[in-house]
Amino acid sequence: MPPITCIEDLRRLYLKRVPRMFVDYCESGSWTEATLRRNLADFARIQLHQRVAMGIEGGSTATQMLGHEVAMPVALAPVGLLGMQHADGELLAARAALDFGVPFTLSTMSVGSLEDVAAFVQRPFWFQLYVMRDHAFIGRLIDRARDAGCSALVLTLDLQVMGQRHPDIRNGLSTPPKPTLRNLWNLAMHPRWCLGMARTRRRGFGNIAGHVKGVSDMSSLSAWTAEQFDRGLDWDDVEWIKERWGGKLVLKGILDPGDARRAVDYGADAIVVSNHGGRQLDGAPSSIGVLSEIVARVGGDCEVWLDSGVRSGQDVFKALALGARGVMIGRAYVYGLGALGEAGVTTALELIRRELDLTMALCGVRSIADIDQRVLHGQ
Known about the structure:
Oligomer: single chain
CATH class: Alpha Beta
CATH superfamily: Aldolase class I
Number of helices: 17
Number of domains: 1
């Protein structure tokens, strides 16, 4: 295997080792994928301001997120179906992140359950919540997150309806894959993945199956999930969830400055400027493109983070320069997980930290707190 030098190297290996259905789930955006491409292009257009002889000995990427020390201002974003990218994917990604010193966020739509991850890592992690019509189930899910020792709740606001992702529709995405001829042929081409899946008992939606009345098999679960995303989601729901949870609350999926201000008014401890990785509203602006305006509207009243399009330490640096206090990464660590399991997640984090440290040095800053718009060319 050639040396892994960047996230793209992990991606190339990932494409070889993970079945097509789950590669498409990770890689695709909604509709024409214009927003997905814009996320990457807008990061690439930002130019940096190189400095020399700045005395940068002793620099560090360490900082804080939600008041906790982190090795760098990066958290693993919630990603559904991690356990289909690699056997026991949620458990392995959580341990890799926590060992590295950055937060891990478990998705509502995970394969490994809250209880599975808590027993495996025995350290606090974050839990991401989707709002379903069944509020009794949501209340129980919040209570389970508290019982599992989760230290923050990440409430995703931009998935009250599912974006149209054409590859998922064509593939008939399911967990586990349906035994169609096409799927069986593709699985046969990925023996490493199949062997891992044969060794684990985790193949369904662990946070939902067995916890919802009337859901007894994967077909009924699929129907329930499709029907349950709550189009009626509003700020009263946010208030109810905050009260029920009682701990640190992060609101994810913010692209509008007015929504950002309202999130703060409703008690968010942090907000995530995000277009869901280009997977929801196609034609929306990039997250990095609206970041500065949202930071200006919110001020210092809560932490502002960014996700969507972060593929390198330089992307992290650029987001911080435009006012973010941290970022969340999704696809970047999924590539590592699918390619190399737990070691691949660690490799992805090491690559990003090394790139962030190098970029800080070449731009003449020694600490995360020193990064601002002065490190950008033309500012």
